TrEMBL record:
Chain ranges of the Fibronectin type-III domain: 253-350
SMART domains assigned: FN3 (SM00060), IG (SM00409)
An example Gene Ontology molecular-function term: interleukin-11 receptor activity
Keyword Chloroplast found: no
Keywords noted in UniProt: Disulfide bond, Glycoprotein, Immunoglobulin domain, Membrane, Receptor, Repeat, Signal, Transmembrane, Transmembrane helix
GO cellular component terms, semicolon-separated: membrane
Single Gene Ontology BP annotation: head development
UniProt entry tagged with the keyword Signal: yes
PANTHER family for this protein: INTERLEUKIN-27 SUBUNIT BETA
Provenance organism: Serinus canaria
Bilayer topology annotation: Single-pass type I membrane protein
Residue ranges of every copy of the Ig-like domain listed in the record: 76-140
Protein's recorded name: Interleukin 11 receptor subunit alpha
Compartments where located: Membrane
Amino acid sequence: MASLCFCSSPQLGQVLTSPLWWYLHEASAHSQCPLCVGYSPGAPQLPPQACCGMVWSANTHLGMCVPPGVQYGQLGTDVTLSCPGIRASSAVRWRRAGTTALPEGSAIQQGSLVLPSASQALGGTYSCHGKDGSLLHTVSLRLGHLPGVPFVSCRASDYENFSCSWTSSVETFLPTRYITTYRKKSLTGEEKRRNKNGHVGLCLQDPSRPGTCTVHRSEFWSSYRLNITEVNPLGFSYRLLDVTMQAIIKPDPPEGLVVEPIPLAPRRLHVSWKYPSSWPKEPHFQLRFRLQYRPIIHRSWSVIETVNLSEVITDAFAGLEHVVQVSAKDFLDAGNWSEWSAEARATPVRDLASTASEETTTDARLESLAEEPSQAPNPEPINGSDPMEKMAVLVSLGIFAFFILAAVLVITILIWLRVRKHGKDKTKPSFLVAATHLKALPKAQIL
């Protein structure tokens, strides 16, 4: 169980110089605050005279320095304003600045003003007066809510440091500050000997970046427990978050993205980039990269993964402008991909063959247009020939086609008859051929 403690520590007092200290301790319910961690708010240093009053949160040991004459109250509850320095039986009159009457439902009990179910409209300046009307005390009432459990997320942009950011879950309407500490969950033997009560350190807040803190010199293979505590004059609320460096590592986007067309290569683009400046270049902590690209007229992306700092796109569309982005991730796949880098654009060179063909066609069209004389507009149709002339042409074409078909048919019949006759001669018996030959010879030759 986590508890907040206010501890006096001479050793811490020697180290810290702010007049206002908040101390945070995470321990069991039975511990008597054996360990204290000093914390100085990120606000400017307060001079000693500024801390002229302390408001202690109910049921806690957490104090806030507030100016005198200010009282905080919780919305929706009964708020009691006291008039110090008078007896309970003394007659006291209360007034509210800017009005002639007290809020409806308010009551004076033993010299104190009670405001039931206080709403935001009841905030303001109240004063108590004696019997003779003399001013006894003035108090400024500020109303709000108890802090809610903050929303916390952590991210490491490199393997040496990690940062956490938070937002409040409740709008309190009151001045709010945050205590941010961490503890290493697993300690080595040497660390246990040096820090008998465990290592608790500050997650340092940067005034220029509200809502964030950074743990420096963290260890990549270690786990940490973050305690983000939201404090206002009414109380506090905290969130404990266990952090593993491998899980929260998320590099910054790569830098220096350059995309260039490749001469004489109409479908290729050369892409190069650099490591993010926040990522130390060490041989055992490398990054891998993811490249996405598309023509500007398309919506879908093509993606390439690589471990190099340059890549050649081989399937680009010639003559179309392309959009390219790159992101990074730990080489061993720890954590998450970075955000995409800023866009870079380039257009591949056009295909020389198609370019020459288009230029030739264009030149021919221009020449033909130049040779033709200009004509005045003619309202008549361009193809305004006589219908009888069209009919005569069709008849002539039909007659010509008929004669062509007839000639082809005659030639085909003649060829068929010749082939048939030649086939019959080959089928005659050999003795008939010889008899025919003898019959044709003179008788003298036969004898």
